[in-house]
Amino acid sequence: MRNLFNLGLIGGTFDRFHKGHISLINQSLKYCNKLEIWITTDNIAKIKDPIIQSWDDRQAEILKHTESFFPSRITFGKLKDSFGPAPSHDLAEVIFCTEDNIKNCEKINILRLKNELPKLSIVELKLENAWDERPISSSRIRIGEIDRNGKKWYPEQIIQSPIKITKKAEGKLKRPYGELIIGPENDISVAMEEVKRKISNTIGPIICVGDVTVLGAQLVKNRMDIALVDGKTKRKEWKDAGNIDNSKFSNFLSCSNPPGQLTPSLLKSCEMAVESWKEDNTQSIIEVEGEEDLAPLILHLLSPLGGIILYGQPGKGVVIREVSEESKNHCQLILSNFKLMNENN
Description:
Structural class: alpha/beta
Radius of gyration: 24 Å
Order of helices and strands: EHEHHEEHEHEHEHEHEEEEEHEHEEHE
Number of domains: 2
Number of helices: 11
Strand content: 15-25%
Number of strands: 17
Helix content: 25-40%
Strand order of the largest sheet: 7-16-15-8-9-14-12
Shape: elongated
């Protein structure tokens, strides 16, 4: 059995505390009696990504997952630079890292020698992989690729076969989730002006679903990164659909999605549009042969956290729904009640 170090150090952002973080902490505690976890300050973290949680929230999530097991072995500090306290920490004996930051630990040891302190032992920790054999990371969670357990958000079966709505799933869609902005049905620009004001500081993609919503966004010159249209409103051909200016979009995609279904074709087009936006902010319009009404369920699962999805509520106005882990979980729950096309309701 290995001899334990008395005190070890580990540092990081620790945003959206996930399965990989749990593994890193558990591995570290196998080597030391006590562990200091140094969490990047808000000032530094927000430069990296504005939607990173606050320091207090990040610490609270670590505590929530560790206090029942290691309450007396873990303490916390605020990491204000890339080295933290390690170059001058006279009690620490070991520092933990992953493959991508070993060089930083080696620099720390050079500084420690200059400070007449012994080198820290460096222990490289194994990363936890997601479903695709790539490491779980907070950045992958923020951009919507995986959940905190490293799993994909959307149901596996939709990759191969259409899924159809059931009465149970339909019941869960009766009321709109998100914020309803009320406006007259004959002048969508009224509601969209208020929508534009409310989402003006959005960092993630703004996604509009439905011809009326897309045209309304264009009328008020609202930023629109992804649009889905089917030429209809209330399941009837809409004469004003032709007024939508497709030239405002750099990327034109098309797919097939019959009413009451979600198809691999729709999933692929939505994936392509989201990926194009993530790569270089390319704006895409998706023309759906059939209906796009259920597309927000897929778009929430594919989109980065902090994005906005807009869709019309017939006779009432426009619904604003932010993409969050909560919205993704909610859409997953609804989709769990869908059935494969060859199954009965």
